[in-house]
Design brief:
Layout lengths: L3 H4 L3 E8 L2 E8 L17 H22 L5 E6 L2 H6 L4 H21 L6 E8 L6 E10 L4 E4 L2 E4 L2 E2 H5 L4 E5 L7 H8 L12 E2 L7 E7 L12 E2 L4 E3 L4 E7 L28
Antiparallel strand pairs: 1-2, 1-11, 2-14, 3-5, 3-9, 4-5, 4-10, 6-7, 7-8, 12-14, 13-14
Helix pairs in contact: 2-6
Length: 276
């Protein structure tokens, strides 16, 4: 364990590998940890709220990149007037209904011997305007046993709309991508700006990113390696203490983007297995 004099002028580089995506962050090692004042739940300032939202996007992107791939499904469960009345018309009611919906799906998949992973993100915000909209629920879930027939989504022989039972369920199948951060951004941007409120939840069986740390003496700006594909989120601002890069290593094949209202950035097929 280094003492304060030995650590003065040193930096910690943290590398996070989520599927094919690499993140590297450099931060100064301070001589003494900063003292934190008493924290009151729900007493976050505007900067903290924005920071929490951005961290929620990064965290969700890591989960998606580690656990989901082409063929998995993105469901948006919506409420018709009767369904909205049944849940009390509230965000909390929508969240509870979403969890019950997932439980019913997981139960059916378990009977088929399938294990599933899922992410749940209730919403009542328009991500572009910030205005309140009718509550709805976003779900990312393993695509096993889902199928489109006659333009309707089935789980086995059951209509997914019938399993939901409170309205309709829109579906999009995930494409061949390596960075799902644009999808994470889209979903988290629709979360409420309530301090300390979780923007999304997920199943407990998720694969976790690989994290490596190294102490270095240089405070120089981190850079994307030559030939790598730089991804959204890279930033450098010494005054704010930001020194962060996101990329797909050069050995991956850079892809193209698909346009549209919910465009998702496409990238290559291989991850980074190198060192810090």
């Amino acid at each position: 364990m280094k003492n304060s004099k030995e650590t003065e002028g040193l930096y910690m580089v943290t590398k996070i590998i989520s599927g094919a995506v690499v993140e590297r962050r450099k931060s100064r090692i301070t001589r003494q940890p900063a003292k934190r004042g008493g924290r009151i739940r729900g007493n976050s300032g505007e900067k903290k709220i924005v920071g929490n939202r951005e961290y929620a996007k990064l965290s969700l992107a890591r989960v998606l990149n580690c656990n989901f791939a082409a063929g998995d499904v993105w469901l948006t469960a919506k409420f018709d007037p009767e369904g909205l009345e049944r849940i009390g018309g509230t965000f909390e009611g929508a969240k509870a209904a979403g969890k019950r919906f997932i439980d019913r799906i997981v139960y059916r998949l378990r009977k088929q011997g399938l294990v599933t992973r899922w992410v749940l993100a209730p919403s009542q915000i328009d991500g572009e305007t910030g205005e309140l909209v009718r509550p709805h629920v976003h779900i990312i879930i393993s695509g096993d046993a889902f199928a489109l027939r006659n333009k309707r989504l089935y789980l086995g022989e059951e209509l997914v709309d019938d399993i939901w039972g409170l309205g309709c369920v829109d579906v999009q199948f995930l494409r061949h991508q390596q960075d799902y951060k644009p999808l994470a951004d889209y979903i988290v941007n629709q979360s409420r700006g309530v301090p300390d409120e979780k923007k999304w939840t997920c199943s407990r069986n998720m694969k976790k990113p690989v994290i490596r740390r190294e102490v270095v003496a240089s405070g120089a700006q981190l850079r994307v390696p030559p030939g790598a594909l730089e991804l959204p989120g890279t930033r450098y601002d010494p005054e704010k203490g930001q020194n962060f890069v996101r990329y797909i290593p050069a050995k991956s094949k850079a892809g193209r983007k698909i346009g549209g209202h919910r465009e998702l950035a496409l990238a290559g097929e291989d991850g980074d297995s190198g060192g810090i």
